[in-house]
Amino acid sequence: MLKLLFIGDIVGRPGRDIIAERLPRLRTELGVDFVVANGENAASGAGITGALAKSILESGVDAITLGDHVWDQRGWENEISEIEKVCRPANLPKGCPGWDHLIIEARGFRVAIFTVLGRTYMNLKADCPFLAADRMIEQLRAQADAIIVEIHAEATSEKQALGWHLDGRVTAVLGTHTHVPTADAAILPKGTAFMCDIGMTGPYASVLGREVKPVVQRFLDGMPRRFDVAEADVRLSGALVEINASTANAQKIELVTVRR
Questions:
Q1: Whole-number Å distance between alpha carbons of 247 and 58
Q2: pTM of this prediction?
Q3: Whole-number pLDDT of residue 124
Q4: Which of 19, 70, 80, 193 has the fewest Cβ atoms surrounding its Cβ within 10 A?
């Protein structure tokens, strides 16, 4: 049995700090073999930089995925290809820089990871996540013992549909982007672990990681405001998946929440 921890969207400095402070010990306590983290909100809540990606990897993360904020930080498009353990969404246009998947290994077991962006209520140009996932699975099947798919999407229906579409073909389908952990962690009938959203890693006394007051005021009057990253009630949130090494099926999935 192997264990993979997939950490939800790291939001700003509070999210990065709790990763640095708690992850090394958490890996030991849980007996984790692989750690993957979504880092698309790591830089002040929007995007990531090369320096921040390297610091997250040095904190004990084995692979970093990204989402619709992938290009928010100026110059990142020139850095992304230089960092081997970071991948962009696989269904972005082919001309976009960066890796479209990652393969990490522990105890002789190889895990492939890729992300697809949803298209419902999302603004970034992306191909169909279902067809892109099919393509990536076909490409990666011979290169890895297990495949983990991240669906970075707004609509729960789109996430659930992809889970059912891929059941039995991948080890896990895990949702990110909406920053609120859901209570639907399950093993689907053919052995794929699924969860609509694994939550965010950052300040929960907030609105999706941002200071409450300006967000509420924006809803009240529609005026533009600066949404700074909040600071209080910092938590690490993610999904812990147990993998049967002989079948690559998921045996168990559970939400992991660690408070600072």
A1: 31
A2: 0.96
A3: 87
A4: 80
Question: For residue 169, what are the contacts with CB-CB under 8 A and spacing of at least 6?
Answer: 137, 147, 192
Which residue bears the tokens 């938590």?
A: 235
Amino acid identity of residue 141, one-letter, is R
- Rounded to the nearest 5 degrees, what angle is found at the Cα of 48, between the Cα atoms of 55 and 61? 40
Residue among 69, 101, 177, 179 flagged as catalytic: 69
Question: Which residues in the chain belong to E strands, given as ranges?
Answer: 2-7, 34-38, 63-65, 86-87, 102-106, 109-117, 146-152, 172-176, 186-187, 193-195, 202-203, 234-243, 250-259
Is 69 an active-site residue? yes
Is the Cβ–Cβ distance between 101 and 79 less than 8 Å?
no
Find the distance separating the first CA and the last CA of the chain, reported in whole Å: 29
Report the C-alpha gap between 236 and 241 in whole angstroms.
16
- The CA distances from residue 112 to 50, 94, 137, 171, in Å, are 22, 19, 9, 10
Contact 212, 206 (CB under 8 A): yes
- Looking at domain 2-259, its CATH class is alpha beta
Residues of the chain with pLDDT under 50: none
Report whether 61 contacts 7 (CB < 8 A). yes
DSSP state of 166: H
CB atoms within 10 A of CB 139: 14
